[in-house]
Design a protein that fits this description.
Strand content: 15-25%
Strand order of the largest sheet: 2-1-3-4-5
Structural class: alpha/beta
CATH class of the largest domain: Alpha Beta
Length: 226
C-alpha cells in the first residue's frame, strides 16, 4: 500500500516515513500542502496522513482540494489541536479519521490498517480466502493453518491483490502502490514475486489463487469465506 505523508516538521516527517516503511508500506513525504497536491496528482495513493497545521496552504485546504479533484483515498488527520471543532471541521472537509499529537506508533498503524480494511470492505483484520488466511495486523499468512514464510515484498504484493480481489491489477499499478519511487519499473521483479507467491501458496498447483490476465496483469480469484 502506498501512503502520502504531509508533515512540515522535519523530524516528525522522517519518523513517520521510517515507521511506515518498517511496517512494509511504501510512503512519500511532502513537507507542505502544495507539494502534497503535486504528488497526489502524479501518483496513485491508497491513503494520506495530513497534518492540519501546515504553513502556507493549510491541511484543511489540502483536504478540500483533494476531494474537489475526486481523489477518494482515505485521509487521516494529524493535529496538535485538542479543540473538537477543528476535528469536526477536518472530517467535514473530507477526512476519514483523526489522531491527536503526541500519539503512539501502534495506534497510528492500527488506524491506518482499519482505514485500508474499510475501503476494501473488510471489517476484520483476519481475511480468509479458501485455505489462505491473511492477518493484516500481524502481517502474516497461513495456508490451511500453517504459517507461510513470505518476504516483505511478497506479503505486500499478496495483500494488495487480496484487497482488490476479483479485479485485474497491472504490473505498473502494483509497482506504483507498493514500492519506492526509485523502484526499477523495467525489471521483471513483479513477475518474480507473483511466481514465488504461487509456489508458496499453491505448492501442489491445484488452488491457483492468482490468475494471469495476458497483457493486463494479475487477479486474485479465490472467493472470500463467509
Amino acid at each position: 500500500m502506498r501512503i502520502l505523508i504531509v508533515e512540515d516538521e522535519p523530524r516528525l516527517g522522517e519518523q513517520l516515513l521510517a515507521q511506515l516503511q518498517a511496517a512494509q508500506y511504501a510512503a512519500d513525504l511532502a513537507p507542505d500542502g502544495r507539494e502534497a497536491l503535486y504528488l497526489a496528482a502524479e501518483w496513485q495513493y491508497d491513503l494520506a496522513i495530513i497534518d492540519l497545521g501546515l504553513p502556507d496552504l493549510s491541511g484543511m485546504e489540502v483536504i478540500r482540494q483533494l476531494r474537489e479533484k475526486k481523489l477518494e483515498f482515505p485521509i487521516l488527520i494529524l493535529t496538535a489541536r485538542s479543540d473538537w471543532q477543528d476535528k469536526v471541521e477536518g472530517l467535514e472537509a473530507g477526512a476519514d479519521d483523526y489522531l491527536t499529537k503526541p500519539f503512539h506508533e501502534q495506534e497510528l498503524l492500527a488506524r491506518l490498517n482499519a482505514l485500508l480494511r474499510r475501503v476494501a470492505g473488510h471489517a476484520s483484520p483476519l481475511l480468509q480466502y479458501g485455505p489462505i488466511e491473511l492477518d493484516t495486523t500481524a502481517k502474516q499468512v497461513r495456508l490451511s493453518g500453517d504459517p507461510v514464510e513470505l518476504t516483505a515484498y511478497e506479503y505486500s504484493t499478496l495483500e494488495y491483490l487480496i484487497h482488490n480481489a476479483g479485479k485485474v491489477i497491472s504490473k505498473t499499478r502494483l509497482t506504483e502502490h507498493l514500492y519506492d519511487q526509485d523502484f526499477d519499473r523495467d525489471s521483471n521483479v513483479i513477475e518474480v514475486f507473483v511466481t514465488r507467491l504461487r509456489k508458496k501458496l499453491d505448492p501442489a498447483g491445484t488452488l491457483k489463487p492468482i490468475a494471469t490476465e495476458r497483457g493486463r496483469g494479475y487477479r486474485f480469484v479465490l472467493e472470500r469465506n463467509g
